[in-house]
Amino acid sequence: MRKAEVEPTPNGIRTDVTAVVQVPASTANLGPGFDSLGMALDLYAWVAMSTAEETQVHLHGQETQGLPKGADNLLVQVARKVFERAGLQAPELEVSVYSEIPLTRGLGSSASAIIGALVAANELLLDPLPREVLFQMACAMERHPDNVGASLYGGIVIAYWDGKEAQHLKVVPESHLEAVVAIPEFELSTKKARGVLPEALPMRDAVFNIGHSNVLVAALCQGRYDLIRSAMKDKLHQPYRAPLIPGMEEVLAGAADHGALGAALSGAGPTLIALVDTRENRMDELSAFLSETMGKHGIRVTIRRLAPSAEGVRLLTLQGDHRTFREIVRKEQVQ
Predict the structure, then answer these.
(1) Could you say which of 2, 33, 67, 151 would form a disulfide bridge with 115 (CB–CB 3.0 to 4.6 Å)?
(2) What is the Cα–Cα distance from 233 to 248, expressed in whole angstroms?
(3) What DSSP line would sit under 27-58, residue for residue?
(4) Are 250 and 263 contacting, i.e. CB atoms less than 8 angstroms apart?
(5) Do residues 258 and 291 make contact, with C-beta atoms less than 8 angstroms apart?
(6) Structural domain boundaries enclosing 58
(7) How far, in Å, CA of 22 to CA of 119, rounded?
(8) Residue 231 CA from chain centroid, whole number
(9) Given its phi and psi angles, is residue 259 left (phi above 0), alpha (psi -120 to 50 degrees) or beta?
């Protein structure tokens, strides 16, 4: 859909359009790549944003219930930073959000919200900020680049953020690489999951992770999926987080024997992710293993098959009011 023709406004903000964006979920770390590897997944959140007389947030779908509906909503707070970065006074906003991404489960729900708000607000500017600037802003907010990088750019993102600036590279995985995720019913906050990590590590563990992360990236770049099983091993964060997630150690140890290329904790958890080669046709076996293993520990999980999302955040429309937000979302969901 073509962008609507909009007359310039004195304050540099488009006031008679609504920006609607679609943002993919993400998994981070992929085992050894702590705070540096992320992959976008085809599970989405949608954000609509326009100027208004009074700030209000409309929540749609089960995954958004309980979130703030006013100026203290994360989407509004992030959007205001875009206008401030552009040297403009932040307007009152009307925001609508629908999400398939479960909250505090290790699938990048906060990162998708940040990227959705950054990009939607940026589309309301007559002189939009470069996407690279949005990436730097997102990394400064999240304090790590893996989830936000994946949601912004799509594919597999290899990145660093040193506290001042971020750099990234993107790899588009082969079409037969997919993932099976086991999403537990319980929530696990990133703050709690980071709180169990040690302040210092033995040198041998740091070297172990550097080597494994390097090989994992090379294997993904070259399609050497036979190396993923060993390359996804980690000594930096997963051993310390395992006590928070009953059954996790058994899943990581046994997933490859049931059809996975390799397995890891997704982000800070509690979701577990197994990478698969769809040509091997062992999805059912792997799904059963994940459910049964977690079930033995009293953990009920939802199993989902997800593909990498090669495309990151996407502008669906910049429009006047001829379709409702839910109509736009429904159309994307059936495609």
Answers:
(1) 151
(2) 13
(3) EE-TTT-TTTEEEEEEEEEEEEEEE-SS-EEE
(4) no
(5) no
(6) 18-170+309-333
(7) 10
(8) 22
(9) left
Based on the fold, state whether residues 116 and 191 are members of the same structural domain: no
- Give yes or no: residues 99 and 234 share one domain: no
Burial class (CB in 10 A: 0-12, 13-18, 19+), 201: middle
pLDDT in tens, 66-119: 888 888 999 999 999 999 999 999 999 999 999 999 999 999 999 999 999 999
Residue 8's Cβ-count burial label (10 Å; 0-12, 13-18, 19+) is: exposed
2 CB-near residues (< 8 Å, 6+ apart) = none
With respect to residue 6, please indicate whether it lies within any of the assigned structural domains.
no
- The 3-state DSSP class for residue 81 equals helix
pTM of the model: 0.92
In terms of domains, do 275 and 318 share one? Answer: no
Rg for the chain (alpha carbons), in Å? 20
- Residues 9 and 316: their CA atoms lie apart, in Å, by 23
CA-wise closest residue to 264 among 40, 25, 38: 38
| Token couple for 207 | 């070297």
The pair phi, psi for residue 126, each rounded to 5°, is -70, -30
Low-confidence residues in the chain, pLDDT < 70? 1-10, 320-322, 334-335
